[in-house]
From TrEMBL:
UniProt xrefs under InterPro entries: Flavodoxin_dom, Flavoprotein-like_sf, Protoporphyrinogen_IX_DH
Domain Flavodoxin as annotated: residue spans: 4-144
Protein name (record): Flavodoxin domain-containing protein
Source species: Bacillus salipaludis
Length: 164
C-alpha cells in the first residue's frame, strides 16, 4: 500500500506527529509539508491519503484548506484519514476539527484523530508569543502531544490494509 500524508507544520509539532505516524504505518509513506516542500505528486498514485494540520488563531492552515478545495472530489474516492494537532480538549477540539475539515470528508474518513499539541513559545514570533500569553497564559514551551492517539490512528489504517 502507498500512503500519502499531506500536512502543514508551523513550529514542528505537526511534523513530529507525522514522523510518528509514518513510522507506524504499513507500506510506503510519502510525507509532504505543504508549507515548506515543493514535492510534486499525483493522488492517483496513492491508496490512502492522510491530511493534517494545526490550529492557529482557531483555524487550520490556509494551504491545507486550499489542498482540500482543489482535490475535494478525488479525496472522496480515497481511503482517507484526517487529523488535527491542537492544544484544546473536549468540545472545543471537536469544534476546531469540524471547522477544519468539510463534513463530507469527515463522513468518508476511515480514521480521524486529535493528536494533542504543543506550545513551542521558543519557536514563536513576537506576535504569536503575545497571543498565546494573553489567551492561554502560556509563557514557556509545553507539550501535550498524544502519542496514544497517533498510534490508534495508525492502527486503524493498518487494520484496513489487512482487510484488502
Amino acid at each position: 500500500m502507498k500512503n500519502l500524508i499531506v500536512y502543514c507544520s508551523s513550529h514542528g509539532t505537526t511534523e513530529k506527529a507525522v514522523g510518528l505516524l509514518s513510522e507506524n504505518l504499513v507500506g510506503d509513506v510519502l510525507s509532504v509539508d505543504l508549507k515548506r516542500e515543493k514535492t510534486i505528486f499525483d493522488l492517483k498514485d496513492f491508496d490512502t491519503v492522510i491530511i493534517g494540520g494545526s490550529i492557529h488563531a482557531g483555524q487550520i492552515q490556509r494551504k491545507i484548506k486550499k489542498f482540500i478545495q482543489i482535490h475535494y472530489d478525488e479525496l472522496l474516492d480515497k481511503e482517507l484519514g484526517l487529523f488535527l494537532v491542537c492544544m484544546r480538549k473536549g468540545e472545543m477540539a471537536i469544534e476546531q476539527f469540524n471547522n477544519a475539515f468539510p463534513q463530507e470528508l469527515r463522513k468518508n474518513s476511515v480514521a480521524m484523530g486529535l493528536f494533542g499539541g504543543e506550545f513551542l513559545v521558543s519557536k514563536m514570533n513576537f506576535f504569536e508569543r503575545q497571543v498565546v500569553k494573553k489567551v492561554d497564559g502560556i509563557t514557556s514551551d509545553q507539550s501535550k502531544l498524544d502519542i496514544k492517539s497517533i498510534m490508534e490512528f495508525a492502527s486503524r489504517f493498518n487494520n484496513l490494509k489487512s482487510l484488502v
